[in-house]
Amino acid sequence: MNILIVGTGYVGTTTGLIFCEHGHKITGLDLDERKIQVLKGGSLHFYEPGLQDLLKKHTQARNIIFTNNTEKAIKENDVIFICVGTPQGADGSADLTFVKNVAKSIGQHINRYKVIVTKSTVPVGTAEIVTSVIKENQKAPIPFDVVSNPEFLREGSALDDALHPDRIVIGTTSETARTIMRELYKDFHCPFVETQPKASEMIKYAANSFLALKISYINELARVCDKLSINVNDISKGIGLDQRIGPQFLKAGMGYGGSCFPKDVNALIHTAKQQGTPLSILEAVVKVNTEQPVYFIEKIKQALGGSLQNKTIAVLGLSFKANTDDTRESPSFILLDRLLEEQAIVKTHDPMVKSGASHQCMTIEETVTGADALVISTDWDDYKHLNWGRIKPLMKQPNIFDGRNMVDKERVKELGFYYIGVSNH
Ligand code: UGA
Known about the structure:
There is one protein chain. The chain is α/β, with parallel strands linked by helices. The chain has 17 helices and 13 strands. The strands form three sheets. It has a six-stranded parallel sheet with strand order 3-2-1-4-5-6, with helices on both faces. It starts with a strand and ends with a strand. The mean pLDDT is 97. The structure holds uridine-5'-diphosphate-glucuronic acid (UGA).
């Protein structure tokens, strides 16, 4: 099948390459000339483990090509995946400008029957909007079908998630489109959920919001545990082993970030409000998440004698989680802003994010040298296996604030560090 992927971000590029692996020919379309040039050269314009090799393999074999020629790309392909961004609008709703622009182009250039698939996270009702926009822009009534097929891959493990999904959700009213989608995914051995487009769109928001809810639940619980000197990691383990609960997304930390959870939870809250049925549970999820970095900073402040003024703080990790260079909505930046507000002297490090900011250091050693405290804000493996014996003499005061509960606390305490985690007693 000839497949067009519109939008070459991490979802679009990963999706395209996964289909290459399954024997399809892919065209990647993006209006951003820079991204296209980088991809044409066989390189990624973002960091995602394992994806670079796959890109090289399939660009060399010409299984995937990249272009910014919208008309040609639409005309030559039979299945079009919309993978463009849906940023958060001013009122919390998802901004559909990019999705609508793609639909408009499809309407203008459609030359034969096509299946249009929305893979971007889009609000309930978007399949209908895409259908109307295409129809409005058609010169002649050429048939097409719209399918909602949300993506569940995570940054940092995109390849594995996309190759081995837990389920594939296909939302369409068209039997023809459903058959084409089944064919497209025939080699994927996981359950298929076939439903109406609106339900499919809601599944994506409900999934992300539920995962965010789990995180906020454990984070708020961590604060109670903290007061009671209980190790919250034991609680995560103890409840996570209950198969009805499951162990994932129960890691207490600095709160969730990224380009998805914060935006998607807000968008679902917005949708619910519009329907006159507010999702108060998700409003609480957002509140807890906003408070979480502040709660942790307060702990740092108290431990350092009530003031952060002129204290040198080494912040380890800028990306919103490990194995990505994405800093969107990263709790690290909330931490940084707050530290600067409190007039601390900040030094930062990240293995992948090179912000160019004056406080960013090249090595961990440089970052911690002369520091009154180091704060682990991203769960990079690099920070888990630090040589603490070498770190300690570099610091002014041996204080570790572990925002990800990932350090071997007994070991660092033995070495003479003062250690505080997120209710990691
Ligand atoms: C999330 C979903 O997990 C994917 O299924 C979905 O496809 C994607 O959004 C999307 O909508 O595109 P992602 O944002 O890449 O994926 O990252 P996650 O691994 O879900 O982590 C999100 C945030 O939650 C990170 O800041 C992470 O550090 C935090 N987190 C995660 C915790 O604080 N505790 C946990 O136990 C798990």
